[in-house]
């Protein structure tokens, strides 16, 4: 056997090693060249088996084929970078989610997802009728309390003036003034009493209106129960009568199809109709059996509607059967046992039954619609009456509040009358030493009353602050400039502190969020450098740095993943919130490291080997210790290889 001439050997990162010019060494037997050329895959399989038999120290031999070569790669020194590749999304610098502090129904939504908002813009508002009423009542209390304090201050001033008057002695004109003061105070008291009477009258009228609304509502509900019960009973009669029509139609059609005179030519022109008709008959019989009306099942509208629905389904099944029976006779021809007149009679009968079934179905549809319309009409009446009842109850509450205010005014006026009368008596009384003490006591009494009124005013102001705060909690304003990113609620829905109402993203993007699989998360550390390549800018990497790693995983598509936050090192104006791209996180870097292609590694019995070229056509296995895995299929070699050596990647033909 002749050995083919060896071609020149290439140099560089990969070299093609030619077949040896002389017989192969003795450790493994040589195979015929014809086998190498005709069955290269078998040849390599045999070579692999011989290699295993030779043990770890066997020499890798090349087969003497014209095209057999080894693909080599040099052992190099350089930088090996280990990285984790994930997808990232650009997020805003500030994101906030807002919730209503108050509880209520959302009345108005002023923005939508994607809208630009400015700090202070009105976003959403609740139905604040109740909170507004509280606020107005608190404001009224403030006004009343302020008036009482003003009057208390005036009373103190008057008491002090009276004291001075006692000390100075009473003059005739002062007595006249005291008489006028009593008259004015009594007039004020009478006006307050009239206001109290009016408030109580309004409250009584409101209670009458409320009671009337309640009675009307109860009457509507009783009428609803009676009417709907009657409609349900009527629905039974309709269902029973139409069920009889359907059952009769089924019987007529069955008899026609079983007529002996038509048997020879029945559906002669399309025999498949007979099988379809029979299948349809079975369905119709089953549907009718399950739709037999029973009066106890028509007690309520809901039961009646369900029963009529079964009858309606049965009418559909019988209608299909009637249509197929009509088609059968349309495809039937006359015969010695079936005359033309008899055939025409069958066709007319089938047409008549089809019409009867359609009429029965329409009657059922009408009965169902009547029952539904009646229920809806009563629902509207009840809703309107409930609204009237609510208005009456609100009027009663308003009258009650007016009564309380009027009672306070009466009490205040009564005190003022007593005070003015006391002043008049003092003015008419001869000056006594004891009068001075009494006047001083009244000053102290007036000052004590003023102190109590001032405390009541402070309490009213505190209540107003609470009411104002509660009212403020019924609206949401934008806390910053930004864009609406989420609006999970709708007008008419119930809102509270537990319900997310709206989310706003700040204007400026500043970070990237990525989900890292659990198998890669141990490699990622705070401070790792990274780069983002956005889909919109595929040729521009943006530098990042890892700033936060969530401690808990989130299962995404069945895979545990950890959210990693990366901040931009420098922020470009071209970046926008919501953009996505590929994030490469550099987890380790080795400078001046020995590295080779990872595909050159082989595993055996827990050890890692590579094939090292020892001549132009021979290679030997060598155990190596690996380090980190780098990009582009590279792996760091800690021990076992030297820079400049060549290793075998794979055989090629």
Walkthrough of the structure:
By secondary structure, this protein is α+β, with helices and mostly antiparallel strands. Among the domains are: 119 residues, conserved putative lor/sdh protein from methanococcus maripaludis s2 fold (Beta Barrel), CATH 2.40.420; 67 residues, RNA polymerase II/Efflux pump adaptor protein, barrel-sandwich hybrid domain (OB fold (Dihydrolipoamide Acetyltransferase, E2P)), CATH 2.40.50; 81 residues; 145 residues. 50% of the residues lie in helices and 22% in strands. The chain contains 8 helices and 23 strands. The strands form 5 sheets. It has a 6-stranded antiparallel barrel. A 4-stranded antiparallel sheet has the order 4-11-9-6, with no helix packed on it. Helix 3 packs antiparallel against helix 8. The longest helix is centred in the middle third of the chain and has 89 residues. The two termini are 20 Å apart. The relative contact order is 0.18. The N terminus is likely disordered.
